[in-house]
Specification:
The protein is mainly β and about 350 residues long. The protein is built from one helix and 19 strands. The chain is elongated, with a radius of gyration of 21 Å. This is Transporter.
């Protein structure tokens, strides 16, 4: 999420930016089509008078516009994830044995390095509850470090698409193994994961003179290096375990849209599809008598499709607030959560 900005400015726009049962391709193909549309161009007169339009969102899909050189953008999030159901391998929804909930706090910090290059550091802390147990306080998550480069800047009214790429790296700051009797304290992944993303955004001017902003994001993460685990871990290993986990690749696609009703109010929506590749676990468990027993497991792929309606209120071009709820529409081998989100965007 990058800073909210009035669209009448001559500078690039900046704004703040992780289910009906359906097959993956039935949702991914329309999303790809909409993403491609964002690259088409329509020319407008550069001297046209533009109405004031400020933005903060959307909640999921990242903004391809970089921020002004030397500017600092803070976007704290509060997220509450709650799940009573899960999707089985066939996409059928079923009850979980125990409900699962998690409070998440995120603090993305973005800085304009050059007119086209933005650096971003994301800090986080979570608290989880499950089976009547809970995390001992707020536990640190992994830190994400990101560099974003703008390939194509928009024109004054945004009708020419903005296109960017970014690379992000996961830094291992959260606990993920050797958790003893507190498995819920594990908020890290242990994966040195690299993520590559392509972003695009375009403004469409409607007949009433108000702008509709459309953006898309396609992200891919190859399989990271294997993770060496010891004892209780976030990958459901028991006491006495010694072994290796082999994570899968990840693919994410999202489309976001915002309609500027006036200078302050903006309804927004994201449609999201995410897929996690197959992973495996291999190791041994040391028994009480000192003997070793093998432990091997294959974690099948998982996928989830969701929709995220939201509403923005922009105080001005510097401060904005956005709140919404992420609803899962379908998936495979994963929980089916409902996730309210709220974020505040501030530009300095």
């Amino acid at each position: 999420m990058f800073p909210a900005r009035c669209i009448k400015s001559s500078r690039p726009l900046r704004s703040a930016p992780i289910m009906l049962q359906t097959k993956p391709l039935s949702l991914v193909r329309p999303l790809l089509l909409v993403l491609l549309l964002a690259f088409s161009s329509v020319s407008f007169s550069e001297d046209r008078i533009l109405p004031e339009a400020n933005y903060t969102g959307t909640l999921i899909t990242s903004n391809p516009n970089t921020i002004r050189e030397g500017s600092l953008v803070l976007t704290p999030y509060v997220i509450y994830l709650h799940a009573n159901d899960r999707y089985d391998p066939h996409g059928r929804r079923e009850k979980l044995p125990h409900s699962y909930s998690q409070w998440q706090t995120l603090l993305p910090i973005a800085y304009g390095i050059t007119p086209r290059l933005t650096g971003k550091l994301t800090l986080g802390g979570n608290r989880t509850s499950e089976k009547g147990d809970h995390t001992r306080g707020l536990q640190a998550t992994d830190v994400a470090l990101r560099l974003q480069y703008q390939l194509l800047a928009p024109n004054r009214d945004g009708s020419r698409p903005s296109v960017s790429v970014f690379i992000s790296q996961n830094l291992l700051t959260g606990s993920y193994d050797s958790l003893r009797d507190h498995p819920l304290d594990g908020m890290g992944s242990g994966a040195k994961r690299t993520n590559l993303s392509l972003l695009s955004q375009k403004v469409f001017w409607l007949a009433n003179g108000r702008p509709l902003r459309l953006r898309g994001q396609l992200s891919w993460s190859p399989k990271p290096p294997s993770i060496r685990l010891q004892d209780v871990s976030v990958y459901s290993t028991p006491h006495g375990f010694r072994g290796i986990y082999y994570p899968g690749s990840q693919l994410n696609l999202s489309i976001g849209s915002e309609y500027s009703m006036d200078a302050h109010w903006v309804p927004a929506i994201d449609i999201v599809a995410s897929r996690q590749g197959r992973a495996s676990l291999s190791g041994t468990i040391q028994q009480e008598d000192g003997s070793l027993s093998p432990m091997q497991r294959t974690d099948n792929y998982s996928a989830i499709y969701s929709i995220v309606p939201a509403i923005e209120y922009n105080f001005n071009g510097q401060y904005g607030l956005i709140a919404g709820v992420q609803f899962s529409l379908g998936g495979h081998n994963t929980r089916a959560p409902i996730t309210p989100r709220i974020a505040f965007n501030a530009v300095f």
